[in-house]
Amino acid sequence: MPETTTNHAAPETTPENSTSPSDQPVRGAEEEVAPVSEPTERAQNPAVLFVCVKNGGKSQMAAGLMRQDLAAAGLGGAVVVSSAGTQPGSKVNALAAQVLAEVGADIAGEAPTQLTPEAMREAGHVVILGAEAEVDALEGVKIERWELDEPSARGIEGRERMELVRDDIHLRVRELRERLLG
Predict the structure, then answer these.
(1) CA distances (Å), 178 to each of 24, 63, 70, 75, 144, in order?
(2) CB atoms within 10 A of CB 63
(3) N or C, which end of the chain has less CB nearby within 10 Å?
(4) Rounded to whole angstroms, how far apart are CA atoms 33 and 26?
(5) How far apart are CA 69 and CA 55, in angstroms?
(6) Which residues contact residue 53 at a Cβ distance below 8 angstroms, ignoring those fewer than 6 apart?
(7) Kind and range of the H or E element at 69?
(8) What is the CB neighbour count within 10 angstroms for residue 132?
(9) In this predicted model, what pLDDT tens digit does every residue of 36-84 receive, in sequence order?
(10) CA torsion sign, 89 to 176 to 109 to 57?
(11) In the chain, what is the greatest distance between 2 CA atoms, to the nearest angstrom?
């Protein structure tokens, strides 16, 4: 009688019983990849970082107006919008929040944040509002400065001053939106 050899090794693998990691479908790949989607989305959408000294007035107003304009145009999220200050204060200017609320932009819940090189790199486009904030250039980051009208230099103060500043910023935000979205 011929001798039979029994193989005690693992059974032959088939697609149904394969245990090799490369043969197995990746389970939960969507969950593993999900955290990457936000940076990918930011890379696809233009981004802008508005900067002033305290991040309590002008830069917050610009960010709020940009978000409000995008939402009104049905383009919410089309531009990633943020703001920061070179020497941030402790809160948003109450009068700035009031005059923005009058045009439908809500910044009352925002908080000043410190400008960082990382935030500048993430945005890729920085807009400095006014002449006071000093921002160092970073390779690969576009920086522009908006020399805003300063009504107080003409003796205009209080609510009227803030409304004029808001309107100046709003015109510039609309123009920037067009440039960013083409």
Answers:
(1) 48, 15, 10, 12, 16
(2) 24
(3) N
(4) 11
(5) 20
(6) 85, 86, 87, 130, 132, 133
(7) helix 58-72
(8) 12
(9) 334 434 458 999 999 999 999 999 999 999 999 999 999 999 999 999 9
(10) positive
(11) 115
